[in-house]
Amino acid sequence: MEINLEERKVVTDKSFEYIFSVWKFLGFYKDDSYSFLQKVHVAFIISCVNGITILSFIVQLFFVEDLKQLLNILPMNVTLVSCMVKFIIFLDKRRELIGIHHLIAKLDSRQLTSEEIESLENLNKFCKKIFFITFVLFEGMVHSAAVNAAFSHRQTLLFDVWMPYDYHNPASVYWATFIVQFGFFITMALENLTNDLSGPLYFIMLNRHLEIVLDRIARIGWDKGSRTQEENYQDFINCIEDHRTVLSIFDILQNTISHTLFVQFVTTGVLLSMEALLYLLYPPNPTELAIIVSYVLDITLEILPCCYYCNNFMAITDRTVTAIFSSNFMEQSLKFRKTAIIFMQMTQKSHVVVAGKVFPVTLATFMSVMKVAYSLLTVATRLR
């Protein structure tokens, strides 16, 4: 049953409400050009929040006493720098990302069945649940570090960093430093959340819109008697236009998210090497071993959502020809069949996101990363 969107509307953009709320807090605005205050806002986030935090970790490297302490501190340095670089990339590609939402609105404006509308609405809710779960995980880490520091009797802060003064005494200095560091790390956790979550959310909605387009193609011509060949041809042309819109969104994501994914892949490789070296040189006790294993799993699983949904997009695009053959094209007009042949020729190529034009973002790549992580720990165990 077809439903006129004037009677019932679906807004895919709702899936990104929370993401854009956080981005706005971080200085990422939807406006075409930034006002002076908006420029000051984003400059404060990058220079003060990111810059000062990273600087305090870098200076702390000069005060390490041994290699073990260096290997314990260095991963956080790499993670923080990676977080800032990814956020700057998103800021640089801001206009392209905003443009995606105009294209998504175009897809939403099509006449959809009640089942398709309901599936998009369910995905809106699913995306918001993913955001909430990820938010709890990311902010939970910062809050747990804050609780540990708060009960340390002013001995430690959330993270062991260099400070140009003695923050232990008096109490007012300690708590002022504690609050500032807590606020900075809350902000950076939100940065990391949007960096890692925006890609999967975009592809979740894009995959569903592509499936809807292919389902519409497969239904063409089977509604015999109620639609003429010319009407079926126009429906097919509309589907081709929507398919092109989906691929336009994919191209934008390829030119934006692929860069952040490249940074994440490189970061994952560096962090895995550090953990393997730490495990090799300094035999851990059971507690330290559990921390190392959980950390290795964490940094590898961080790239899983994007690999999974990008792999799904590739699989769905490969079903385009099947959708055309599923339509009743044999009973359509000559121009319909000619257009179908041309369209099939144009959709033979698989669409794969390539991180930094180096790594294909697929489940096969993710499994390769997992194998590397396992191999590094295995080699470290045998060498030790």
From TrEMBL:
Q: Which GO terms describe its molecular function?
A: odorant binding; olfactory receptor activity
The UniProt keywords, alphabetically, are:
Cell membrane, Membrane, Olfaction, Receptor, Sensory transduction, Transducer, Transmembrane, Transmembrane helix
Q: Does the keyword Ribonucleoprotein apply?
A: no
Per the record, its GO cellular-component terms are: plasma membrane
What are the transmembrane regions?
A: 40-64, 70-91, 130-151, 171-190, 261-282, 288-310, 352-374
Q: Where in the cell is it found?
A: Cell membrane
GO BP annotations, alphabetical order: signal transduction
Instruction: Report membrane topology.
Output: Multi-pass membrane protein
Q: Name one Pfam family in it.
A: 7tm_6
Q: Does the keyword Translocase apply?
A: no
The entry's family comment says: Belongs to the insect chemoreceptor superfamily. Heteromeric odorant receptor channel (TC 1.A.69) family.
Query: Under what name is this protein listed?
Result: Odorant receptor
Q: Which organism is it from?
A: Hermetia illucens
Q: What is the lineage of its organism?
A: Eukaryota, Metazoa, Ecdysozoa, Arthropoda, Hexapoda
